[in-house]
Amino acid sequence: MTEISPHCLTEHQMKLAVNDTERLFIGKIVPILIAFGISGNILNLTVLLTPSMRTRSNLLLAYLAVADVIFLVFMLPHSFAHYEIFAFSYWFRRFYLSYKMHLLAVLNWASAAAIWLILMICLERLMGIRNPLSARRHERSSTITIIVIVIVVATGLLTSYYHFSYFCAFKRFCNGSQFHGMCIRSDSDSISLNANLSSIFH
């Protein structure tokens, strides 16, 4: 539930970017990297998932590409938040501020899964060097799928704390036309929590 205040926030108070450096990097550079990253990983998937290319190493690379795409897709809202057309949009702000911590949790999840998949790829390559014949097998390995499932579940559990480690408060200003909010760590003491909330909502 959100409170409604007749007070209207200024454009500066409504901005979701912290500073100009963040606005330049995340708002201008990151979207370009996201576009190249998503298109590149989709191209990788079209190659790696062809029947003649389905080795164990390539399957791991395909799973890594999926993790990268998920990371990049969930990074998009953070980039959009640095553009005024989105930053001042009531419905975008409501979605972004309400789910920001969950979006960050998925980013951490995808990043952690990607790190472990890279480790598995390195181990698979090492096994391929030590036993070259095993690296040439083209049949789909159920072992690889099980390992990937374990990685996804384990990293999901390890990063799940992010979904509930922050307390988020929301308030509508300007008679309900402006949506704003902020998130504070749940383990903050009540005095700090109330002080931080008061600094923006009063």
Question: Could you explain how this protein is built, in words?
Answer:
With 202 residues, this protein is mainly alpha-helical. The chain has one domain (11-165): Up-down Bundle (Rhopdopsin 7-helix transmembrane proteins). Helices cover 68% and strands 9% of the residues. It contains eight helices and three strands. A three-stranded mixed β-sheet has the order 1-2-3, with helices on both faces. β2 (166-173) and β3 (178-185) form a beta hairpin. α3 runs antiparallel to α5. The mean pLDDT is 85. It is found in: Membrane. It comes from Dictyocaulus viviparus (Bovine lungworm).
Entry summary:
This protein has 8 helices and 3 strands. With 202 residues, the chain is mainly alpha-helical. It has one domain: Rhopdopsin 7-helix transmembrane proteins.
